[in-house]
Design a protein that fits this description.
Layout lengths: L1 H14 L20 E3 L9 H17 L7 H4 L2 E7 L3 H12 L4 E4 L6 H4 L6 E2 L17 E2 H14 L3 E3 L4 E7 L2 E6 L3 E9 L20 E2 L12 E5 L3 H10 L4 E5 L10 H12 L3 E4 L2 E6 L3 E8 L2 E8 L2 E4 L7 H6 L12 H18 L8 H20 L3 H19 L14 H5 L6 H26 L4 H31 L5 H5 L1 H4 L25 H22 L2 H5 L2 H8 L12 H5 L3 H18 L7 H31 L3 H6 L1 H16 L6 E3 L8 H5 L6 H6 L16 H5 L5 E3 L19
Parallel strand pairs: 1-9, 2-3, 2-9, 3-6, 10-17, 11-12, 11-17, 12-13
Antiparallel strand pairs: 4-5, 7-8, 8-9, 14-15, 15-16, 18-19
Helix pairs in contact: 2-4, 7-8, 10-11, 10-12, 11-12, 12-23, 14-15, 14-20, 15-20, 18-25, 22-23, 22-25
Bound molecules: flavin-adenine dinucleotide and iron/sulfur cluster (SF4) (2 copies).
Length: about 750
């Protein structure tokens, strides 16, 4: 049981970056090694045009630096920029550096434009997305791969760009501000390095016996070369299916795929595949794993509903097309850090976090035999230890620091509820009640300030930089609701409305109304998120509004907008969307992470039970005590731990939406309503896809609730709350480089953004 739990947790922790794993990058694509930039496929640019754009922009940035050129002391033999990889990104970056007067060299382990050279013969190369003109000097338009590569050779020659082919980078070290690089032929020194090595040179392997034989390939170059042979294609993606289709024109083809259906292929490929299967040109072996490749056959294990059956299939040639892997070993050997690496020691982080708190307790006289100064030093020392290990790459230490910050904030925040946590008991809230304002006021100030600062950043990132009005409005709405409804009204306007009788003399003089400013959070927060609207003798105005909001406005809103409340209005979602925005791609993904969304049901059920008990307790005294205890524990564990401490602690590790996705009962309520409306065919909320998806995964990577948007996009299936917990933030629509996605009208209408028919073969 414990082992299973640990396995689930590990799967969730690792899932944030599994299919979309990347090096950890800062602004301008700079890696953890200052002066080393990573671009192109390796940095997540999904197509040639975007890889070229990244190359151009990074080169422009480097050239704009005052120290772009190696100084006179180091100038001799030191390149200003050394580019590794002569693909779309690397060549475009090098040309832009060269144009700006920088001394630049390109190292390429294969041929110039090696990845494109390796495309199947005569493949048409698409220059998508159409909406972006190509940036930089490298030529790009729809063309046969042979013509494209020739144009690139010409451009390199015309510009006298120094490209050293058949010379791969082996090692790199930075000493005294200069990079020392070793290739398999020579040694170089450079002020800056641009790594543009792509991922295609690192095909994923099955790691089974016989895979190294000559007739087992990891790419398809000349499909016409094979006639009347038995061919086994392994894989379930577009490359595998496209290879099988073209090979099946002249051969007998089988596809071995470990899944039970082709969930990720283009709709067009699905249609052609069904046709080929019906014509018996292709045989499908679902739920199968290749165990061994022999000289003329392959052993395949097929899962037949729990029982494993081994069979041998004829195989003159095999094509293992199961994708490419991030070259983790290579990147690590260069000292490059990857996103979301759980390195370090959990036990050490827990111990140091505890010692930090223990030191605080001693400092405040918790134990009279120990001098307070010793406590202070212990606390500082332990915190410094956490930070030092954190800076050395220990992710658990950062988790400890993050926990301490949010535990302290919430541990100090609610003394009035009897929830001032150890070691802050008796002094924390007092110490932070400055300028005559309670600590809860300063908490709201800090919350609003965090949202504003990071919200402005998010408006720039998603709205202004991408010219996306939807995102500008969305973030303006989140900030507006935070400022007006969760800060100005509860902290100032409500009191003024009472003082100056804006609400009428009757209400202003009613202590049941006027002395409960905190209830004004219920203007926007519906039950069961704002749990208290109906408890502790609310004025009837709050009861009427609470019922209207929860049982009329929210359900009607869910009909038209699904769960957009979470991404346009709510303050909890607001902090996640702003302060948590930079970590959105770390949201857990995959089936296990979705299964764990069951926790929402539990919190919702608890909220219902406690509400019923609290409402019934006056009429039925026997439940009064259990109801009060239930409410006390709900407040402590749900409102403080699950809304406050844990999710915000986890922002930098699992993205911003832990509370909203896994625990929020209101989100679950809206999810159930919107899902039901979809099933009844009356929902107006959905995301639709046209036929331009290239499977780049950008949408899935950036979805903060871990939805595999790409799978639905590839099949052009509408994405709604019957199939997902989408909150309508629209980030997937914004990031899609192909303009594939858009909001629909609930009728499954696919947007009319047609593409060239050939695009389906990318
Ligand atoms: C089958 C297929 C079809 C595709 N079709 C299209 C299409 O039609 N249109 C489109 O826009 N995109 C297409 N793509 C995607 C496109 O290929 C990539 O987006 C693009 O090549 C990325 O460019 P890059 O420069 O980042 O990487 P790459 O083009 O992969 O270039 C990386 C270069 O680095 C070199 N290298 C690797 N390691 C080292 C080392 N240690 N030292 C020196 N050099 C090294 C490699 O040899 C390679 O030349 C397709 C991809 C595949 C696999
Ligand atoms: S699917 Fe798209 S709109 Fe829905 S939550 Fe994910 S990123 Fe946001
Ligand atoms: S729908 Fe998703 S996977 Fe497809 S092109 Fe757009 S971002 Fe990439």
């Amino acid at each position: 049981m414990l082992a299973k739990l640990r396995e689930s947790i590990n799967t969730i922790l690792a899932s944030g970056d599994m299919p979309t794993r990347r090096p950890a990058l800062k602004a301008h694509n700079e890696s953890n090694i200052p002066g080393l930039y990573i671009i192109g496929d390796l940095a997540g640019a999904p197509v040639i045009k975007l890889a070229m754009a990244q190359g151009f922009e990074v080169a422009q940035y480097i050239a704009s630096r005052p120290d772009a050129k190696a100084g006179p002391a180091t100038r001799d033999g030191v390149y200003d920029v050394l580019v590794v990889g002569a693909g779309a990104a690397g060549l475009n970056a090098a040309l832009a550096c060269h144009d700006r007067g920088l001394k630049v060299v390109v190292l390429e382990k294969g041929k110039l434009a090696n990845t494109i050279e390796d495309f199947p013969e005569n493949k048409w190369v698409y220059a998508e997305p159409d909406s972006n003109p190509p940036k930089g000097k490298l030529w790009l338009d729809g063309a046969r791969k042979e013509d494209l590569v020739k144009r690139w050779h010409d451009i390199v020659t015309e510009n006298k760009l120094e490209v050293r082919t058949e010379e791969g980078l082996k090692a790199l070290q930075k000493k005294d501000g200069i990079f020392h690089l070793t290739s398999d032929k020579s040694e170089y020194r450079a002020k800056r390095v641009i790594l543009a090595t792509g991922q295609r040179g690192n095909p994923r392997k099955l790691k089974v016996a016989g895979e190294e034989q000559e007739h087992v390939y990891h790419r398809l170059y000349s499909p016409r070369h094979y006639h009347n042979e038995d061919i086994l294609v392994v894989g379930g993606g577009n490359s595998a299916v496209e290879a099988a289709l073209v090979l099946s024109e002249q051969n007998r083809v089988r596809i071995s795929y470990r899944g039970s259906d082709f969930g990720r292929i283009f709709k067009d490929n699905e249609r052609l595949l069904n046709q080929a299967v019906a014509e018996k040109r292709i045989e499908l072996l679902f739920n199968s794993n290749v165990k061994e490749f022999g000289a003329k056959n392959a052993t395949v294990e097929i899962d037949r509903g729990g029982s494993q059956e081994r069979t041998t299939v004829p195989c003159d040639h095999a094509f293992v097309l199961v994708g490419a892997e991030l070259p983790v070993k290579f990147l690590k050997s260069l000292g490059i850090r990857l996103e979301n690496e759980w390195e370090g020691s959990l036990i050490r982080a827990v111990a140091l976090s505890f010692l930090t708190l223990l030191g605080l307790w001693l400092l405040k006289g918790g134990q009279t035999t120990v001098p307070p100064l010793a406590g202070g030093l212990l606390s500082l020392g332990a915190l410094a230890g956490l930070l030092a290990f954190g800076f050395r790459g220990d992710r658990y230490s950062w988790l400890g620091v993050s926990f301490l910050v949010w535990y302290a904030i919430y541990g100090i925040k609610s003394p009035g509820d009897g929830h001032e946590f150890w070691p802050f008991t008796g002094w924390g809230a007092k110490a932070l009640s400055i300028f005559g304002r309670p600590v809860s006021f300063w908490y709201t100030v800090m919350y609003t300030a965090l949202m504003t600062v990071f919200g402005v950043g998010a408006i720039k990132r998603w709205g202004l930089d991408r010219k996306d009005k939807f995102q500008i409005w969305r973030y303006a709405s989140l900030l507006g609701f935070q400022w007006i409804f969760f800060f100005l009204i509860p902290e100032f306007l409500f009191q003024w409305a009472v003082k100056y009788q804006w609400v009428g003399a009757k209400l202003a003089e009613d202590p049941n109304f006027s002395q409960q400013a905190w209830r004004s959070y219920g203007v926007v927060y519906a039950w069961p998120l704002f749990f208290y609207t109906f408890f502790y003798n609310p004025h009837k105005i709050w009861i009427i509004w609470g019922v209207l909001l929860t049982f009329v406005i929210i359900p009607v809103g869910a009909l038209f907008f699904g769960k957009r409340y979470c991404s346009w209005i709510c303050g909890c979602g607001g902090l996640a969307e702003t302060f948590g925005d930079r970590w959105r791609h770390l949201a857990p993904k995959g089936r296990t992470s979705i299964r764990w969304e069951w926790m929402n049901y539990v919190v919702l059920a608890l909220a219902v039970v406690i509400t019923v008990m609290m409402l019934a307790k006056d009429a039925w005294m026997v439940i009064a005590q259990p109801a009060e205890r239930g409410l006390y524990y709900y407040h402590l564990y749900i409102d403080i731990w699950l809304v406050g401490i844990l999710p915000v602690t986890l922002y930098p590790f699992l993205g911003g939406k832990v509370w909203c996705r896994y625990w929020c009962p209101l989100a679950k309520m809206m999810h159930m309503m919107s899902g039901l409306y979809t099933k009844l065919g009356i929902s107006r909320f959905e995301i639709v896809a046209n036929d331009k998806c290239i499977g780049c995964m950008e949408c899935s990577r950036n979805c903060q609730v871990g939805i595999d948007v790409m799978s639905l996009a590839l099949k052009q299936q509408p994405l709604n709350n019957a199939v997902s917990s989408c909150i309508g933030c629209g980030i997937c629509v914004t990031v899609c480089p192909m303009d594939t996605l858009d909001f629909g009208d609930g009728k499954g209408l696919v947007q009319i953004k047609t593409m060239k028919p050939e695009m389906a073969h990318v």
